[in-house]
Write a sequence for this structure.
């Protein structure tokens, strides 16, 4: 898979998944703008890319504002002359259950994840249009945005919203040849180390120890296991793939379904509360959807 001549931005690329995406894009031949609020960590990523023979520069904006998004795109154009790929990975966690969540924590998470995806996606799409289209928007979702994730009110709302942006932007940008997709990653990173069942596995992964085969089959792996999907979606080979949410982790890859109606009834004159109560047990109750997370032992609900 070759990305020679392409220019990519990866937000939140100082460590973890974002770092893996940036390094994989660079290894495939793309020039990469490595964004992270922690500039020292971003510089680590850039040095590792350059040591491997790749091309990358640092950008230190705090993701969320229009000004930060515009600065990212400007950096790509100033350094490399264009922009072809935007990977919106930056995020923060402020985990609290609903009754304990305060406004500041909720606003910070939504501002970084959801608003940051919006502003970076918009800035990139404007640049793609100026160049004649055919860009790649790769928005990073989460299993937490696809199903229940206890204690992650702001995070789940943001990640679910990001997948909503994918479907809408795919429709809006189709004529220009720009594709828009969500990656739903699962990886053993510091972000999931707070889950007791996974803490030891994260420590082993950081020491470079292999992940057991049975764990990998459940969808738990390293950030590098996710990065190949980002490279594919950034490539010309993925020109026909848009509007999708694709999950990947360990040895598993999967396409998530879009929401769809599972039970529909039409009643002349409409539905009163009594009519709904009468019909519900037989007509609708059998079709109610599971709302709890999949029962995969130790499956992370975070990024």
């Amino acid at each position: 898979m070759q990305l020679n001549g392409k220019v990519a931005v990866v937000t939140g690329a100082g460590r973890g998944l974002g770092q893996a995406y940036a390094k994989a894009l660079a290894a495939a031949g793309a020039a990469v703008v490595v964004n992270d609020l922690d500039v020292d960590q971003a510089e680590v990523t850039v040095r590792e890319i350059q040591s491997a023979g790749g091309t990358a520069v640092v950008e230190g904006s705090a993701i969320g504002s229009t000004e930060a998004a515009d600065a990212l795109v400007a950096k790509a154009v100033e350094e490399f002359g264009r922009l072809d790929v935007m990977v919106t990975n930056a995020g923060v966690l402020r985990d609290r259950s609903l009754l304990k969540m305060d406004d500041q924590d909720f606003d910070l998470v939504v501002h970084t994840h959801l608003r940051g995806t919006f502003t970076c996606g918009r800035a990139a799409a404007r640049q793609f249009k100026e160049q004649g289209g055919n860009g790649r928007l790769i928005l990073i979702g989460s299993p937490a945005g696809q199903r229940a994730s206890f204690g992650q009110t702001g995070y789940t709302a943001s990640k679910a919203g990001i997948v909503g942006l994918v479907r809408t932007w795919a429709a809006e940008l189709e004529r220009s040849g720009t594709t828009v997709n969500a990656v739903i990653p699962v990886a053993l990173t510091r972000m999931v180390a707070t889950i007791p069942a996974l803490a030891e596995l994260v420590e082993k992964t950081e020491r470079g120890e292999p992940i057991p085969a049975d764990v990998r089959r459940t969808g738990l792996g390293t950030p590098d296991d996710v990065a190949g999907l980002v490279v594919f979606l950034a490539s010309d080979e993925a020109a026909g793939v848009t509007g999708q949410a694709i999950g990947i982790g360990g040895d598993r890859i999967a396409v998530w379904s879009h929401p769809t109606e599972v039970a529909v009834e039409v009643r002349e004159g409409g539905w009163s509360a009594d009519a709904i109560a009468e019909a519900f047990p037989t007509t609708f109750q059998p079709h109610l959807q599971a709302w709890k997370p999949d029962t995969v032992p130790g499956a992370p609900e975070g990024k």
Summary: The beta strands are 7-10, 31-35, 55-59, 85-88, 136-140, 179-185, 245-249, 252-255. The longest helix spans residues 103-131. The first strand starts at residue 7 and ends at 10.
